[in-house]
Amino acid sequence: MKANFKYNISWLAVMVIGFVAIDACEFLGIINTFIENMLVTIGINIILATGLNLIIGFSGQFSLGHAGFMAIGAYATGIMTQTIATPLGFYLSMVIGIVIAMIAALIVGIPTLRLRGDYLAIATMGAAEIIRILINNLKITNGAAGLFNIPPLVTWATVYVLMCLTTIVTVNFIHSRNGRAIMSVREDEIAAEAMGINPTRWKLAAFVFGAATAAIGGSLHAAYIQTIAPGDFNIMASIAILIIVVLGGVGSITGTFVAAIVLGALDTILQNFGTLRMIIYSLALILIMIFKPSGLLGNWELSFKHLGIHQRKEQSIHE
Amino acid sequence: MSSPLLTAQQIVKNFGGLTAVANVSVHFDQNELIGLIGPNGAGKTTLFNLLTGVTPVTSGAISLYTDQGVQSLNGKRPAEIAQAGLSRTFQNIRLFKELSVLDNVRIAMTNHYQEGFLASIFRVPKFYRTEADMTLAAQKLLAIFDLTSVADQPAKNLPYGIQRRLEIVRALATKPKLLFLDEPAAGMNPEETADLTRLIRQVQRDFHITIVLIEHDMSLVMNVVERLYVLEHGALLAEGTPNEIQHNPAVIKAYLGDEA
Ligand SMILES: Nc1ncnc2c1ncn2[C@@H]1O[C@H](COP(=O)(O)OP(=O)(O)OP(=O)(O)O)[C@@H](O)[C@H]1O
Ligand SMILES: [Mg+2]
Fold first, then answer.
1. Is the dihedral of CA B73, B242, B88, B216 positive or negative?
2. Core-most of A102, A202, A236, B56, by most CB within 10 Å?
């Protein structure tokens, strides 16, 4: 119990230090709007990719429709905060976005999660397209033109805190009875079933959980960027999130963080290269995939428990 | 005679033109240790798959006797059947390879613990208590099978024989009433086989469960089981005590005869 407390405090300390560091840089003028934008994008991408990593890396279901659930959160916030332009209105819209995204994930997941691999990828991609086309054709979402002048109810600090919260909640979920059941289905569905685990139910749990966090990312995106359009949530947006997961390492939340930061920074640096930008970006991806196919970190996780106990054990084996 | 636990009446399984299980009727009673033998391809594994819902029967009835009465297992999903108290191991080992030995066992306990979704994502004390209970229960089982020292290793790192033992522990962790073991001693040397046999016997007594054992090693089965079923070409060839089976002319001809 005491060890758990120490462990949790270490993580809390890391998060507080991160916050204070960014705050200090902001105060000292090191961070301009440009860099703040980059940091916020990275934060939102971490939220999105962590949820997708839960679905792909831990439950082993290949989803290609993450941007669809992000769109639901974004539009819930975009629409609601125009009438209730207060922080409370923002959080309310976020909760509503989460609920709708979860319902949508249930509707999409129940028939499609029985499919395997490529079929599931295509089915989820189709589902996200349906969501996007719905948004494109509804009046309340302002069709293809999208929503603009969304009240700026979100600062970098909101994004930072929500990024920490969703990560904590997701990691806790993974390291629990729930997460183990989910991973057992990934490892061997027949064996999991023989142990009394209902595969559809646990795949669905991961899928709905991931959709809920995607909606949070969407809400933050809408309130920070202040402009959204259906095109922001197309298949390319889903692929962009997928790239972060694959690059960081499928099954490594630490890798997701690293990849989101590396890609965010790379993207910002390459802004000056004009059209060359996408070529260099793609080339970097190809190179990493050639030399490190399991992603930057494979399925390695940063852990204070790791740093302490496991290394010592490792040593004694080698001795 | 003790009371029945599971019965299968005239079950049939056809794979296209092949009849893998032909009109087989068996009954497994409370607290019994039963052997299931037969040559390669006799339909032993298929029978296990039918009884645990992995493959649906073509025809026939499977019934489980519980305190609440008789329950039909026909058409039930494997997960439901497992929750009803039937557990198993696999001939071609199916562990959760990338996960630790401890996690393999704790996963099998998923349905016996309930800390609540919110408790687990917000790590309230109840979460830690439930985890500790689960871990302790898993460690106790691992200790019985002498697996304590490898608890933190990924299952894939274990030698073959140990993986088989872990599969038995995992199956026991579901708290079964009836346990199906599909060639648990395959690939083990005679000494390991003898150890495992004693262990299976002990587990059957200590846990008050029924165990059905598929085994090729005749000496092993004959020494340990109370009753035997012999399958050949999908059909039931004989049933009886080890002594009866050893002296059954049909069995001697069809099965033991091959070995002699
Ligand atoms: N899924 C399947 N599809 C088609 N045929 C199958 C299938 N499963 C088993 N069979 C066939 O059914 C017959 C019985 O196989 P089964 O695996 O039950 O035998 P077994 O008694 O367990 O043999 P062994 O001792 O080799 O494990 C075999 O002829 C096998 O080829
Ligand atoms: Mg077999």
1. negative
2. A202
